[in-house]
């Protein structure tokens, strides 16, 4: 109770299975007394492209545009675009970040990848020697909750599903110092029976009830590739 | 000679190291007698978001929007948006796809991920039982060429760089039946001496000279995780 949660949500359709998972998380966490904020990326028409527009006013080096350098400099002088400052404020306030999305190509949809690219800039999320366990977003938790097109069996046939979590969980969250809870994966809801879909939704509600007692995963290569 | 190459390029700045790598590829491959096409995503202001706008005219199910289903149906009736049809035409004609980009968060920049999400739709790149070695884009080669922020040593400290290639090379290219050449990685050009940068550019020219003699990698979990 009193915990703050940011849900970054990337689905176009409120009636989708992802939409139901979002609704459940908002309701259950609110019921627990958490304060829940949702960034509904498609509804916000969130910009995924990393461009010069993200920097208000003059550039540090207008001869040769370097996005990483420019956003770092802009962050330090409070010169990032409004939408980024707003998302960074939400992240800063949150105790837990939940990413809710359908897996696209073994990965996040581009709109969510764009949120990572543009919001988690140097100076805000990490810095020169401040990364991994020293990252700037320590004392926060994260959870990747996603649906897949393929069944669990189909995924397992081609190697462990954990392989695809490495860039997201380790490369982004762990790099910023954010602890990572077990992912929540709903396999192939589009091909499941109505009963099975209800079971999957109930399992998410159930998990959320004891979420705050969970221990983060061990963010080492062994967790992913053993 | 006579081979067709599509370079999908994702950098904002022509004067960047990625810009130099692109220029080298265009020049060297053209010199070999290849026909080279470039999709310069930032210059095209390529749209990375997967939305209803990608479908021209009526929806298959306007009650509940499902991007995968709608683009599949639209593909079959020639109803995808113009920019997608144009990119698919370029892919269809190409013998080799080169992706040139700076690594953002252990992954492609969002604008390039959006190209994957929107261009490689069902019916065009894969189909119900047509994936992996049966994928619809067989007899094509691909090559991921990218720069990193961190040095090789820094990457190696946290597990093999191949781990992050799994979603891109296996999850996307291999899934569509496209063969994958060894990735081309330029580590931390921003922190390298002018001499070292020149060496890296020369190495790319050199590799391109014998590119057509290369054998694709073995796209199995063993290549990535051994």
UniProtKB/TrEMBL annotation, chains A, B:
GO terms for molecular function: dihydronicotinamide riboside quinone reductase activity; metal ion binding; NAD(P)H dehydrogenase (quinone) activity. GO terms for cellular component: cytosol. It catalyses: 1-(beta-D-ribofuranosyl)-1,4-dihydronicotinamide + a quinone + H(+) = beta-nicotinamide D-riboside + a quinol. It is found in: Cytoplasm. Its EC number is 1.10.5.1. Residues 3-208 form the Flavodoxin-like fold domain. Keywords: Cytoplasm, FAD, Flavoprotein, Metal-binding, Oxidoreductase, Phosphoprotein, Zinc. Belongs to the NAD(P)H dehydrogenase (quinone) family. This is Ribosyldihydronicotinamide dehydrogenase [quinone].
């Amino acid at each position: 109770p009193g915990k703050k949660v940011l849900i970054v949500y990337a689905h176009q359709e409120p009636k989708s299975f992802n939409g139901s998972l979002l609704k459940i998380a908002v309701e259950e966490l609110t019921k627990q007394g958490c304060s829940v904020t949702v960034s509904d990326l498609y509804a916000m028409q969130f910009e995924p492209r990393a461009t010069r527009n993200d920097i208000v006013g003059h550039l540090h080096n207008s001869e040769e545009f370097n996005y990483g350098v420019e956003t770092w400099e802009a962050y330090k002088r409070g010169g990032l675009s409004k939408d980024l400052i707003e998302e960074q404020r939400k992240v800063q306030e949150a105790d837990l970040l939940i990413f809710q999305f359908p897996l696209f190509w073994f990965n996040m949809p581009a709109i969510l990848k764009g949120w990572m690219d543009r919001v988690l800039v140097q100076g805000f999320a990490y810095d020169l020697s401040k990364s991994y366990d020293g990252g700037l977003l320590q004392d926060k938790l994260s959870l990747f909750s996603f649906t897949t097109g393929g069944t669990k069996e189909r995924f397992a046939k081609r190697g462990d599903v954990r392989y695809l979590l490495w860039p997201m969980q380790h490369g982004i969250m762990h790099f910023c110092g954010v602890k990572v809870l077990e992912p929540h994966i709903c396999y192939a809801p589009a091909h499941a029976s109505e009963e099975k879909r209800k079971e999957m939704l109930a399992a998410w509600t159930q998990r959320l009830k004891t979420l705050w007692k969970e221990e983060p995963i061990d963010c080492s290569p062994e967790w992913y590739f053993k």
